TrEMBL record:
GO terms for biological process: DNA-templated transcription initiation. Keywords: DNA-binding, Sigma factor, Transcription, Transcription regulation. Belongs to the sigma-70 factor family. ECF subfamily. The lineage of its organism: Bacteria, Bacillati, Bacillota, Bacilli, Bacillales. This is RNA polymerase sigma-70 factor (ECF subfamily). InterPro entries: RNA_pol_sigma-70-like (IPR039425), RNA_pol_sigma-70_dom (IPR014284), RNA_pol_sigma70_r2 (IPR007627), RNA_pol_sigma70_r4_t2 (IPR013249), RNA_pol_sigma_r2 (IPR013325), RNA_pol_sigma_r3/r4-like (IPR013324), WH-like_DNA-bd_sf (IPR036388). It comes from Paenibacillus methanolicus.
Length: 174
């Protein structure tokens, strides 16, 4: 007895292909943030769980891809934060003291400065910059995620970059 008719079978195959493509996109997002295939797969699995648990929060089915990528990026970010917390303060102090003024100490200081500057931005501008430059989202994806026109997203990112540049210049001139 065939439970799925020919029409149902074709629809199921189409649905399965769409899910497979979404999974591949999510893997790419996670892998770009974690640089480890195993961790990327774990992040995508966790993202699928979160998507299923909060599926009612997706208002428009057409935005499923952007929604899934955002959740995946957030899970990957949380995994990175968790890994960073695993390093003890003593390990960090030892690393910095042994490095002296080497590029790694400089990079750590630079990252701290960037983090402080981002913290001074309004939440919407900070979110757009993180989506664009940290998560690697395209302007169209950011626009869909934030429900804004693409032109607005581009303009705000441009203005926020200019503001950050001014803030950095002011900081070095002080």
């Amino acid at each position: 007895m065939d439970l799925i008719g020919e029409d149902d079978g074709a629809a199921f195959e189409l649905y399965e292909a769409k899910l497979r493509e979404l999974y591949n996109q999510m893997i790419r997002v996670a892998y770009a943030r974690l640089s480890n295939k195993s961790d990327a797969q774990d992040a995508v699995q966790e993202a699928w769980l979160r998507m299923l648990q909060s599926r009612d929060s997706l208002r428009e089915a057409s935005k499923l891809d952007a929604w899934a990528k955002t959740i995946t990026a957030n899970v990957a970010l949380n995994m990175n934060r968790h890994t960073a917390r695993m390093l003890t303060v003593a390990d960090n102090e030892e690393l910095l003291s042994s490095a002296g003024d080497t590029p790694s100490a400089y990079e750590a200081e630079l990252l701290l400065e960037i983090s402080e500057l981002l913290g001074e931005l309004d939440p919407r501008s900070r979110t757009m910059l993180l989506y664009k430059f940290y998560y690697g989202f395209k302007d169209q994806e950011i626009a869909e995620a934030l429900q804004l026109p693409v032109g607005t997203v581009k303009a705000r990112i441009h203005r926020t970059k200019a503001l950050l540049k001014r803030m950095m210049l002011e900081q070095t001139n002080v």
